[in-house]
Amino acid sequence: MSPRFVVLGPPGAGKTTVGRLLAERLDVAFRDTDDDIVATAGKPISDVFTDDGEPAFRAMEEHAVAEGLNTHDGVLALGGGAVLSATTRGRLAGHTVVFLNVGMAEGVRRTGMSSARPLLAGVNPRATFKSLLDARLPLYREVATIEVTTDDLTPEQVVDAVLRPTGPAQGT
Ligand SMILES: Nc1ncnc2c1ncn2[C@@H]1O[C@H](COP(=O)(O)OP(=O)(O)OP(=O)(O)O)[C@@H](O)[C@H]1O
Ligand SMILES: O=C(O)C1=C[C@@H](O)[C@@H](O)[C@H](O)C1
Ligand SMILES: [Mg+2]
């Protein structure tokens, strides 16, 4: 069993929003590893970061992603930092992986100052978002088989782009 699409990208790229729409369009189930972690931990992700620390969160995330890849056959959205794990990047080989990209300005606009995103809850979310993008862009691209830049697209248009055939133009 393997997910039809694995969706990843930075916070605010639309993994949850677009992932859900994509699953609806394909009439398959949607699963988000962030939700799996919340269910397992029995508390919000911000509390996992505060109480247990980021390394503990990353270990739970590695486990949740492996479980999703092995047991889910619909659309699987990963947390924004899941690609930081080399083990996870290795496990993504052979899967159809969609990288939803978003630039700093739009990413910060979409995520706002939400404390639900502990890594962006500091004093300078723009700088934090930029350094996060700089560090992760090569990792997202290492595992992605499809990349869509979402800044100027609605979630529906992003789904269209994911499903658009990429081969040579048909007919004349
Ligand atoms: N293409 C888009 N155009 C405009 N707004 C969008 C788009 N995609 C997502 N959004 C909005 O941006 C916000 C963040 O989207 P979403 O929660 O899906 O991102 P995410 O990638 O799952 O983030 P996280 O890594 O924090 O889970 C939501 O308010 C959502 O409605
Ligand atoms: O970008 C990140 O590192 C994170 C993104 C979210 O999806 C959550 O997985 C968590 O807030 C960490
Ligand atoms: Mg999400």
Automatic annotation (TrEMBL):
Pathway: Metabolic intermediate biosynthesis; chorismate biosynthesis; chorismate from D-erythrose 4-phosphate and phosphoenolpyruvate: step 5/7
Binding of Mg(2+), residues: T16
Cofactor: record remark: Binds 1 Mg(2+) ion per subunit.
SUPFAM superfamilies: P-loop containing nucleoside triphosphate hydrolases
Names of the cofactor(s): Mg(2+)
Gene3D superfamilies: P-loop containing nucleotide triphosphate hydrolases
Keyword Transferase carried by entry: yes
Similarity section: Belongs to the shikimate kinase family.
Protein's recorded name: Shikimate kinase
